[in-house]
Amino acid sequence: MTPPAEAENSGGRPDEFEIIDKIFAPLAANAPGAYGLKDDAALFKPSPGCETVLTVDAIVSGVHFLPSDPPESVAKKLLRVNLSDLAAKGAVARGYLLVTAWPHDIEMAWIRRFADGLAADQAEFGLSLWGGDTVRTPGPLTLSITAIGEVAEGEAIRRGGAKRGDDIYVTGTLGDSALGLKLLQGELEGISGEYAGFLASRYREPTPRLAFGQRLPGIAHAALDVSDGLMADLGHLCSASGAGARIELERLPLSEAGRAALALRPDLLELPASGGDDYEILFAAAPSRAGQVEAVAAETGIQVTRIGTILRAGEGVFAVDRGGSPVPLKRLGYRHF
After folding, report:
1. Which of 22, 155, 180, 251 could form a disulfide with 217 if both were Cys (CB 3.0 to 4.6 A apart)?
2. Angle formed by the axes of helices 256-264 and 193-204, to 10°?
3. Residue 217 and residue 221: Cα distance in Å, rounded?
4. CATH number for 33
5. Which percentage of the chain shows pLDDT scores above 70?
6. Domain of 293?
7. Collapsed DSSP state (helix, strand, coil) of residue 41
8. Of 198, 245, 111, 218, which Cα lies nearest the Cα of 154?
């Protein structure tokens, strides 16, 4: 996270040295290999018998979060979407690299609150900042994290590997984040305060299922996290696995808040299948592993639901209603382009 040779500090605006030394260096205090963010790179040695897992995600103001979202929530979403990828691999999180492209009008107070959000999640999930880069941008606020984790050698769960006849499972509930976005955009009225707060928090601060994911090696044949939308991400898993899939829409797990919102807006009934930003783990496992899946769910306190079956590749990826008839969906998930 080395600053440029010359720092800009006009009109009381923060410069790169201040941002790094005063705000972000403390986040690296517990990472010896980060050298207090005063070097050009960090050193990491994985535990004996482990492989390193790397993942990177970027979020952009107005695309992945609302400009009005609290800075702490923006920080947590940024870190957690990366931790969710590690969870789906069965990995333990160790550290992360942070790249920040700050608009010219950013306030130091906003950056401090952003760092407070990172500090809170570092404490919760047991990792530290190792380095990164800090730059200015004339465009919208853009943030990126590369998360580093480790998993026992040969135990990482890939997208490919799902087998015909496997059960398809998902953790948690679906559609809450997409409904939360609708709510924050003023498109979902009449939701009670408690439900509104829950849906907003699911959009702003997703929960990476690390404890659950770390128990999946040896149980799941394939897994990934639901970021673009259930049907879209299932398509990615099936493409990598050379398989098809059938999802039973009536089995999709909904929260109380989600059910209440959909009762008010039946036109949004497809969101649990296609809304995106759920950051739950979608995985395939043999029917013989059902007991182990249930045991892991009970031990971690995380809800898990069987929602479908892996098919042959030629059968496609589709959803069915209660009677088993295919249901055409208007939208499968989010696409950047």
Report:
1. 155
2. 110
3. 8
4. 3.30.1330.10
5. 94
6. 167-320
7. coil
8. 218
